[in-house]
Amino acid sequence: MKKLLIATGFIAVFIAGQVSAEAYVGAGIGSAKTDTHETSWKLYGGYQFNPAFGLELGYNDLGSYRGADIESWTLAATGTVPLGTNWSLLGKLGAAWNHPSFSGSSNNKDLLVGVGVGYGVNKNLGVRLEYENFGKLSDANSGNDSRGYNWGLSMKYAF
């Protein structure tokens, strides 16, 4: 009987998670800090497994770094905490793959950390204001160890 109750509980959690699961895509603009202040833009998509936990993949153009283009691919777990009607807090923790294109540079993998606030316009459309830290933009052995940060505003559409 005890095993049956435990199994029923796991099934209920799995079904409840699937009911609230949704895929989403988004795009945004922002202000990045590399070695200078730059205009940035991003595209992202993800899957919200339940109201509190998701997984997100993103492409970020951070403008220029050392006079050349810098881009970052990210993969992060997301956590969401509702603040009331339509508002929520967002946290991200994952990896950033930073790709500078200046001579002598090399790609760098680093920790991605982000926080933000979201507003749900309706069931499918939302707006986010986020801060993201991409870590070091280039391999430390290249002598260029600036860190990348971004403040961004984006729109998110959930399916």
**Number of separate structural domains:** 1
Report mean pLDDT, rounded to a whole number. Answer: 88
Question: What helical percentage do the residues reach?
Answer: 10-25%
In the predicted model, the low-confidence regions spanning at least 5 consecutive residues are: none
In terms of DSSP E residues, the strand content is: over 45%
What profile does the largest beta sheet have? 8 strands, antiparallel, barrel
In words, what does this structure look like?
This protein has 159 residues and is mainly β. It has one domain (22-158): Beta Barrel (Porin), CATH 2.40.160.20. Helix content is 12%, strand content 66%. The chain has one helix spanning 2-20; strands spanning 22-33, 37-48, 53-65, 68-84, 87-100, 108-120, 125-136, 147-158. Strands 1-2-3-4-5-6-7-8 form an eight-stranded antiparallel β-barrel. The chain is globular and about 60 Å long.
